[in-house]
Write a structure and sequence with these properties.
Helices cover about 60% and strands about 10% of the residues. By secondary structure, it is of the alpha+beta class.
């Protein structure tokens, strides 16, 4: 799917409110079991939070590194993993942020913190092109997070992931929730368009022409390369167009694998829902 089908860049929103609410619980856990993070350790994480709020991401990251080296698997470390993930996003280390988000999901006992970690992880996976894996984390996040922004963007990207997996009807439900619940959202119009989209497959668009002869010539060139191409006539803003497509694929991954072959003939071909 091209960037045109997903114009909104979902920012990974800081979950510091959830993290701050967990500090007393972290201290209580440490006191109750007689081990784990000390008050000095927890103070270091709180200082890291202050650094993060002041956009001193490297300083925050270093403090959290120190804390997590001492307490890598402690239940009270979930909040630190979440905060370090946010630092790593800001530092353009998203592959490392993904690992931290996974650890937060694994360790978090706070329901809201875990939901935010699922949302963060889903976003990172989506942006890394791991849309099939992102599905379960979008689902887990949206079961808990309140229905207010950025839930509109989460629903929208969840729908795009479901489309790519060939779960078209499930995707439509997500798109419907966006434009019905969030009519002023920046993605509402796009969500409505996808909800009303009549097709349940992907094709590869190889060209769009105003005259039929050019479209026919490209179609024949593709067929000579043994590609299942076709020409479809459409109308856009009153203008007649002749689009050249290759194949129909129920899942995005299948179309994407074929895209490399089509680009040997047409270098700027791309995948579209069709």
């Amino acid at each position: 799917m091209t960037n045109a089908t997903c114009p909104a860049h979902l920012r990974i929103r800081p979950t510091l409110t959830v993290i701050r609410r967990a500090w007393p619980m972290m201290a209580l856990v440490a006191f109750a079991v007689g081990c784990g993070p000390t008050h000095l350790d927890l103070r270091q994480v709180m200082q890291a939070e202050t650094d993060y709020r002041n956009r001193n991401y490297e300083a925050a990251h270093d403090k959290l590194d120190t804390f997590l080296r001492r307490h890598p698997n402690d239940k009270a470390s979930a909040e630190a993993y979440c905060l370090r993930a946010l630092c790593r996003v800001q530092m353009s280390k998203k592959h490392l942020a993904e690992s931290d988000a996974r650890q937060c999901v694994k360790l978090a006992t706070d329901r809201d913190l875990r939901a935010n970690a699922h949302a963060t992880l889903a976003t990172l996976l989506y942006e890394a092109g791991k849309t099939n894996e992102a599905i379960e984390h979008y689902d887990a996040a949206l079961k808990t997070l309140p229905e207010k922004p950025p839930a509109d963007l989460l629903h929208y990207r969840y729908g795009l992931c479901l489309q790519r997996a060939g779960r078209w009807q499930d995707a439509r439900l997500e798109f419907a929730s966006v434009y019905q619940r969030y009519p002023t959202s920046e993605v509402a119009a796009h969500a409505k368009r996808f909800y009303e989209w009549p097709h349940n497959a992907y094709s590869i668009q190889a060209g769009a022409f105003r005259d039929s002869n050019s479209a026919s010539e490209l179609n024949q060139r593709l067929k000579r390369s043994a590609l299942p191409s076709r020409v479809e006539r459409t109308s856009r803003q009153g203008e007649r167009l002749y689009n050249v497509y290759v194949g129909k694929y129920p899942q995005y991954d299948t179309a994407e694998r074929m895209l490399a072959t089509v680009r040997r003939v047409v270098s700027d071909a791309f995948v579209v829902p069709k």
